Amino acid sequence: MKNPAVTDQELHPLIMQRWSPRAFDSKLIEPEKLVKLFEAARWSASCFNDQPWAFIVATKDDTVNYQKMLDCLVPFNVSWAQAAPLLGLVIAQKNFKHNGKPNAWGEYDLGQATATLVLQATALDLVAHQMGGFDADKAIATFDIPETARPIAAIAIGYAGEASNLPAELQERETAPRERQPLSSFVFTGKWGSTSPFI
User: Rounded to 5 degrees, what angle do the CA atoms 72, 74, 76 make?
Assistant: First the structure.
């Protein structure tokens, strides 16, 4: 299933096709595609080129680690994410590698790396759904994440499935039109709330 964005401006097809479905096909992701996802994240921009990101992942054929990952999600997310062939945690390093000082931009850079990964997934005919609904403390304990790092989100990646395979209460959400705030609500010039003249 695809659900392309209906945009006001013509955008790159990868941006228009990227979306966050909850319906996943059970097909495993080929190892060569998995490697490409994280190679894309590797080449993302970061402050001081510090690359303050880490990903802990589990594929569905690794039943022990996959279940451990699933156990970190809130029940609502378990209800649909359990079909995804890959689950992961998206983690930011708290301090710069070159001087050990706090990295105020680490989470921003992690977001860029994850966005790059997700666009690469789209290019490979995969879909990804990022989640805030997970237990960070449980993830830290389960996967031995050090105090120098902070899990920011969970992610499910795989091939898109059919909405009809979702729990009934999610099927309508899966096929609903995609919406976004207008540019005038967040692109400003001169002061906050003053819409830029080119909008």
Answer: 140
